[in-house]
Amino acid sequence: MTVGHALATAATFLWLGMVLAISFIEAPLKFRAPGITIPLGLGIGRLVFRALNAVEVVWSIVLVVVVLLGDGWTRGAVIAGGVAIAALACQLIAVRPALTRRSDAALAAPDEISETRSRAHLWYVGLEAIKVVALVVAGASLLSA
Asked: Which residue ranges run through the membrane (predicted)?
C-alpha cells in the first residue's frame, strides 16, 4: 500500500465515522437531553454541522488529490468517492441555505416555528444516507485494491 492509497483509505473511513457519529448519533440525541430547547439545539447544531462540513470538504479535497495523482484507486472507489463528494456538494449548495433560513426563523421567533421537520431537513438526511453508503463502498474498494 502506497502512502497516497493509505491516506485515501484513512480519509474515507475518518469521513465516514464523523458523518455516522454526528449526523446519526449526536444530532438526534441532542434534542432528547434534559433542558435542551429547540432554539438551543438549533444553535448547537449549526455550529457542529458547520464544523463537520468544513472537515468534510478537507477530506473530499484529500480524496480528489489522491485520485488525480492516480494512486491506488479502483474504478468503484472513484465512482463511490465521487458520489460522496456530489452528495456533500448538494448539501452545501442546495440544502444548507434552506436549513439556515429555517433555523434563523426559529431562533428569531421560537414560538412560531413548526415542530415538524422541513423538507430541506429530510433532503439533508437522505443525502447523508447516500454519503454513508458511498463512503462504505469507497472504503471497501480501497481496502480491496
From this structure: 6-27, 47-70, 76-95, 122-143
Mean pLDDT, the chain, whole residue set: 91
The total number of structural domains in the chain stands at 1
Query: Residue 74: left (phi > 0), alpha (psi -120 to 50), or beta?
Result: beta
Which tops the pLDDT comparison, 102 or 138? 138
Check: CB of residue 49 under 8 Å from CB of residue 11: no
* Euclidean distance between the first and the last CA atom of the chain, given in angstroms as a whole number: 9
Beta carbons of 69 and 4 less than 8 angstroms apart: yes
Model confidence over 1-54: pLDDT tens digits? Answer: 788 889 999 999 999 999 999 999 999 898 888 999 888 888 899 999 999 999
Residues spanned by the domain of 81: 3-144
Q: Which of 54, 63, 57, 51 is nearest to 26 (CA)?
A: 51
List alpha helices for the chain, DSSP H: 3-21, 27-30, 38-68, 75-90, 96-108, 119-144
Given the C-alpha cell 434534542, which residue does it identify?
Answer: 31
